Structure formats: structure tokens, C-alpha cells
Amino acid sequence: MTKEDVSAISSCISYVGNIEVSQVNEKELDFGNLAEIYGDIVIRNNNSLRQILLGGLAILNGSLTLIDNVNLVGIKIKKLHSISQVLVRNNPNLAKIEIGLTNSITNFEVSQTGVDAISGFNFTACNNIVINNNINLNSIEFRQLAKVSGQFSVIDNGYESSAMFPSLELIEGNVTIQGLTSIDLSSLKKVGDVVNIIKNDFSSLEMPKIETFEDGLNILYNQNLASLKFETLKTIKKGLVISGNADLHIIDENSFPQLDSVGEKILLNGTFTSVKIPNLGNFNKAASITSTEKIDCNSAKLSFPLVSKNLWICKQRIKIKPVGEETDSDGRGTTNSDTQNPELKRVGFVVKVYPTTVRLFPKENNSTLDYVKAMSKVGYVGKYDILPNNVVLSSALATEFLSHPQISFSTFKGRYQVQNLLENHEKDYLDRHQAQIELKTAFNRKYINEVICADIKYFNNLIDLYIKENGIHYSENKVYIPDLIEFVVSVIGENACLRVLGDELAKDKKVRTIIERTTRQTFLTSFSKLRPIKYLRHIYRNIMQIRSIEQMADILRNELRLNDGSIKSATNMNALWIILNQKAVSISRNPFRLSWVLINLIRCMVSILCTRIANVFVNLYSDASSSQELINEQAVLISNYGRDITYTLLPKMKRLISFVKRALLEPSPQVGALLLSLFYSAGSLNPFIDFCKIGCKHSSAYLLIESEKCFNTDTELIL
């Protein structure tokens, strides 16, 4: 529909049919006195559009959809009192959504906008509530909402965002609550699917009327959480997991006073000094309590009298001790075995690298074709899934490319060789000085082809710092590193982050917090959108010049002088520095595209030889039932543009990307079984493939070894 079409219907009182406005070169759309629309309003991909006026609209017997209008700042529908669905997605400058008091609605989604408040809706029931990644959103209020029959998702909005749902009694779908400073669920009585409460900033979590969780309850990584109160909770039909909440030291009789039934395991991991759940006398499943603080395991066991010895674990993790300080006599706590099981604390910004061939089982004789056949049986694999950078991904690895899962680790071949170099064969202790020498050697082309150091001194300091903070020090010169792979990925990722952001920004605490919140995804959370680095939107929110992204890549590549192998100081020359100066004045500053460039810069700066990559454990979130739709869409792309699909074609891939985000990032029935069995191991490469450009061909990063052909789809290589 053109501007003229909009003008033609603006004089009408009622309109029957769908209204779709796409790719118009207008700053404002005014629908005049139009009062009733019996159909859908779809406004998408309008780069110039700033304002939508629907001041007379009272009834919309359909849905309102606003997608990818990058300059849209406001929409006014103040008289509206009836609408079936609201879908607002990726309108980064949209600051105001003025909609009247609507009596009913089926679905409500507001994601990736600039709105600072969502309130004023008086509907009492809704199928799905999705409010994700709105960087300025600090206030969410749905005071009349009583029932959500599907998904309930509030994820990573403003830094001080709070949410109020004081009348909400029933949620039948899954629940994800992330990035809030407070939430009011004071009337909630029942949840029909899994509940994930992750990385919030509130100090207490209370649900005073909750009675039943029909699935599991997961409370994870809420750093300020100090108390829990589920006063009326009686039943959790699956597992209870409370982990990574640094300030939560006590679970007492006020936390779960009436809880008498948990259908599966109970896993408590954190800084607990005391655990007491008074009414769990009939619980006989597995129970595990792990704490970094001194905990009385005998007292904790009183809450689990029927848990057998082989299903009971209670232990204190070994604390990191300063160099020269010995572990005290009871530092290992009380355990049900003598096995030490230290866990590492993640430091820095972990960036994944990508394998070039994958297998279903960790057996040396399994080929990639075996993997494809096995995955095809459960509906996960099509020949091509997505080709944004001359990379062929199988469905199982789509989330590895599209997001940054917190628990996915990338490794390099030679793990056991490195460990053999470092380990004392009699004990799992390392000579600290020798360990640092060997680890630095591993970075210097011994097991990794090349890592371009932003600052050699700082890079070596990263190694020293990791050993100091995450190693277990037994004496002045003896240290044990529980997971060498974790170490390698952490340090090369930290180095990449430094090179891309520069020294000042890379070390800035606020920037680092934003990066970690917006580029890392926990395994229990599914997302409906890609998650670009949010702080870029703060910087470039008002600079929306839509130009060629490839020109941006060329400027970044040339200015960083990465093609000739030279190294520039990240402090004085980094991607953001270039963009902020005149040398980038003519390139695109669109934050969505810019995020893609910087994320791929970071990825490519940790490129590793294909033959050096060993194991990657990937969590699957895909909907196998829709795989044919994905395959068909890819076939069209390949037929129109060939296999070499670049960033310049990204706008034409929106349907494909939308599908991947929708279908492959959501849980499916097959996931549970596959999660336990899917491990991926690198296989042999054809001799002529020296190096595979992992997601980098059209990015602005340095390619360590230019290869004529990175991926040969005629061979057994899939990725």
C-alpha cells in the first residue's frame, strides 16, 4: 500500500481488509478519521517512516504488526479499545506506543524497541506475553491481567526495569524472567510449564500465593538475590534448581514452608551455609547441594530423610587460595566421596569459535555423514540451513551461529597433548611457572594457528590472571587448573574483545556488564530475536544512515591493517574508534548492522585451524516439525543468489532468519533426549583445505590464511 492508498482510506469510517505498508519513502502515515478496521495492519521495512497516526481508530478486528521500521519514533492509537494482537519488533527508535485501554487481546509482543514504559492495558487474559530487549524500558505494568494461556517472557529490558502483574493468577505456558530489578507476581497460583528466573537484580523473590509448578523451577545467576519466599507452594512436578545466586546463603523454613512434593531432582549450587525445607519428608529422588561456603551437610540431610546414600550429594567446593596459603583441614567440606570436584568461575568475555565438521557420537570412526543420517531421523537436518557467510550450518548448530549460549564451549584439538605437557603424571598438580610457559607456548602456534594479540604484555597478563583467579593453589609453586579448555576459550575471547572494543571500553565495568547481559544466553532461555550488542544502540540511536555494510567492513579492515598481518594497538586503533571518527563518516551507522559487524569481528579474531578444533557441546533448541519450511526457503535463496550469500543480501533473508529464530530457538520434545547424547568431534579435512574461514569471508576481520575454497559441500564436510 502506498501513501496515496493510505490517503484514500483515511476519509473512510470503516475499512474491510488488510492494510500492509512496506518500503515506502515517507516520514509520516496519517490514517485520518478511520475508526474501524476489519483486518490486519502490517507496517514493516520502512526506513524513512517516523510517525504513524491512527488517532480515530477505535476497533481493530485483527492484529497490529510493526517490524523493522528503524526510524519510527511513535505510534498513536489513543481511542483504541478493541484489538486481537500486538506485535512490535525491531523498531529501535520507537519511544512511544500510545494505545487506548483495550478490553481484550490474544497476543502481545514488544521487542527491540526504545520505549521506556508499557502500561495502560486493561485486558484480563492473553495467550502470550513477550517483552524482550527493549533497552530503555524501565516500567512494565499489566494491572488487570489475570491469565496467560501460553508463553510469558520478560527478558533483558532497561537496566532498572521493573514489572508489575499484581492480578495474574495463572500462566499455562513457560515462564522466563530475566534482567529485572523487581517483579510483582503476588497473585500467581499456578504455572503450567517450566519457570526460569535468570540473571535478575532483585534482592528477594516472593510468590505468596503460588501453589503448583506443573514443570520445573529454575532460579539461576541472580547475583543480588538474598531471600526466597514461596509461602503456599506445595508441588513442583519436575525439578528444583537453584544455582549461581551469589548472595543467597540460606534456604530456611520460611523459603518453602509447605513444599511437600518435588517430582524430579533437587539441585542447589551456590554459597549456601544452611539448607532447610521442613516438609519434604517423602522426597526420595536425587538431591545435590554444593556450596563454596562451609555448610553443615548433616543438618541439611535432615530435610531429605528418604534420599538414599547413592542419590545424596552434599559438599563444599574448594575455594581459590592465594599463592602460598594452604587449604585448611576441612576445606573440602563434607562429601559422599573423596573425589574433588572444583568448579571454575567464568571470567571475562567468552567468545565461541566454530567447528568445521561435526559428529553425533564421540567415536573416531563416525563420519559426518553418520551424524547427518542420525540427525535426519529425528528431523533436525536439512542439507542447508543458513548461509550468511559462505557457511553451511546444520539445524543442530543454528543456535551456535545465531546466539551466544553461556554454556557452549569451543575447544581446540590437542587438548590431551597440552594436558599431558602440563600434568604431573603422579598427581593432578602443575608446576605454576612451567604451566605458564607451556600455556603461552600453546598460544604461540603450537596448538592454535595464530592469535593476534591486542597487547602482548596484557595478553600474557591474562594468562597469569586466569591462573591466579581460577587455579587451585596448593603451595607457592603448585597449581591445578581443572579445565584447560575453559582457560583457552576465556583468554582468547578476552583478547578478541580487547582488540574490537579498545583498551578503555574493554575494561570499563559498565560496558562489560552490558556485553555479558546482551551477548550470552543461558541454556534454559529461548529467544525470539537476535541479540545485538545493546550499548551500540545507545551510542548510535540517533544516527541512522542506511548505507552499504560491505563498505563499512572494507573501512574497518583497511584501517585495522589486518590484511598485511601487522598489529595495531587496540588502545589507539579499534573498530569503535574508526567508526567514531571521520574515516567512517560515509558508512552505515545503523546499530543493527553495526552489531553484526562487531560480533563477527570478535568471532573472526579467535579463528583457529580447522584441524585443531576438537569438541563442541551444543544445546539444541529447534522445532523439527517445521524443518521442511526452512529447507524450502533455503532452496529459494540458493537458487536466486548462489551459495555465496553475503551481508548485502541480509535484508532478502529476513524470512529465513525469522524462521530460524522462531523455530530453532524454541524447545521441542526431542531436545531432552538429544541433550544427553550429542557431542561433536572434529574429523579429518581434505588436504587442500588449509584453513576454513569460520563465518568471516565477508566480515572485516583478518583471515589468517586465505583459502580458495573453505567449505566443500561435495565432501563429507557439513560445517
List the keywords.
719 residues, alpha/beta, 16-stranded parallel sheet, seven-stranded parallel sheet, 17 helices, 40 strands, 20% strand, disordered C terminus, secreted, cell wall, CWI-Assembly_Regulator, glycoprotein, signal
Describe the structure.
With 719 residues, the protein is of the alpha/beta class. It has a domain at 189-339. It is built from 17 helices and 40 strands. The strands form eight sheets. It has a 16-stranded parallel sheet that branches. Strands 13-16-19-22-25-28-31 form a seven-stranded parallel sheet, with no helix packed on it. Strand 34, helix 2 (297-301) and strand 35 form a beta-alpha-beta unit. Helix 6 (432-446) crosses helix 7, helix 7 (456-470) packs antiparallel against helix 8 and helix 15 runs antiparallel to helix 16. The longest helix is centred in the C-terminal third of the chain and has 18 residues, at 484-501. The chain is elongated. The protein starts with a helix and ends in a 38-residue tail after the last strand. Mean pLDDT is 60; it is low at 319-376, 378-430, 443-454, 514-631, 641-653 and 655-719.
